[in-house]
């Protein structure tokens, strides 16, 4: 029940420059009632500036809280989804590599690999690791059959740092990265191209697997 003393106290607080929300916390009076009681009270310019500043701060706090809540929800979903992935079978790895190569090399009608051999280029260290695993476990390739080229921005000067990075990602010694080409790209460590020596036969085999997948989908 709203009493007269509540109204008196609300008026006092409002004249001191308190916002409706601040007064409501103190008196537990509905905001609609406060609006009716206090609508005729004029605030000074300093008081208005204070309320404006507090609204801005509250909006920023609310936005930050909402962002943190969203990130927390995303992280929980990611953890739950990651738990769904157990062991990857050899056949699953085989299919993953085919799809990866299809998207990277053949989805745009690029047929040069059928003559020049298997090549895969990416700036994503996880995709590079996946493709190397595929080459070794599915392609049965030896270490010496795999070569690397680095494509680096013209502005990048510290080549040793880039070589150290890709050496750590691939597990190959720094001697396996003798060729660095300059081009226009904005990635921090450039692009890494994985090349397989004398691999036109493997490229044709991958192309055949992809055609088989397409034929099954058509049927």
How would you explain this protein's 3D organization?
The protein is α+β, with helices and mostly antiparallel strands and 219 residues long. It has 2 domains: 4-80, no CATH class; 90-218, no CATH class. The protein is 61% helix and 11% strand. The chain contains 9 helices and 4 strands. It has a 4-stranded mixed β-sheet with strand order 1-4-2-3. The protein is elongated. The model has no long low-confidence stretch (mean pLDDT 85).
Write the layout of secondary structure elements.
Elements: H1 4-15, H2 20-27, H3 31-38, H4 45-84, H5 90-106, H6 113-116, E1 119-122, H7 125-137, E2 146-153, H8 159-170, E3 179-183, E4 191-196, H9 200-218
Parallel strand pairs: 2-3
Antiparallel strand pairs: 1-4, 2-4
Helix pairs in contact: 5-7, 5-9
Poorly predicted regions are none
Give the oligomer, counting copies of the same chain as homo and different chains as hetero.
Answer: single chain
Element-by-element helix/strand order:
HHHHHHEHEHEEH
Structure classification: alpha+beta
Number of strands: 4
Number of helices: 9
Largest sheet data: 4 strands, mixed
Q: Share of helix among residues?
A: 55-70%
Major sheet: arrangement of strands: 1-4-2-3
- Structural domains: how many: 2
Tell me, rounded to a whole number, the average pLDDT.
85
Morphology call? elongated
Task: Give the termini distance in whole angstroms.
Answer: 74 Å
Q: In percent terms, what proportion of residues is strand?
A: 5-15%
* Radius of gyration from CA coordinates: 32 Å
């Amino acid at each position: 029940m709203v009493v007269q003393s509540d109204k008196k106290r609300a008026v006092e607080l409002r004249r001191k420059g308190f916002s409706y929300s601040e007064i409501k916390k103190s008196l537990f009076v509905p905001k609609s009632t406060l609006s009716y009681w206090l609508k005729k009270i004029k605030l000074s310019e300093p008081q208005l500036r204070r309320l404006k500043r507090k609204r801005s701060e509250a909006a920023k706090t609310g936005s930050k809280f909402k962002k943190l809540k969203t990130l927390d929800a995303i992280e929980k979903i990611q953890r739950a989804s990651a738990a769904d992935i157990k062991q990857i079978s050899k056949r699953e790895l085989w299919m993953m590599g085919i799809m990866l190569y299809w998207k990277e090399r053949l989805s745009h009608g690029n047929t040069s690999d059928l003559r020049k051999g298997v090549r895969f280029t990416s700036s994503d260290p996880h995709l590079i690791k996946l493709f190397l695993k595929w080459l070794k476990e599915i392609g049965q390739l030896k270490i010496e059959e795999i070569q690397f080229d680095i494509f680096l921005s013209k502005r990048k000067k510290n080549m040793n740092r880039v070589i150290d990075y890709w050496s750590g990602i691939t597990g190959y010694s720094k001697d396996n990265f003798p060729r660095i080409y300059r081009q226009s790209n904005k990635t921090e460590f450039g692009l890494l191209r994985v090349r397989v020596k004398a691999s036109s036969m493997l490229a044709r085999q991958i192309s055949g697997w992809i055609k088989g997948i397409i034929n099954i989908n058509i049927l």
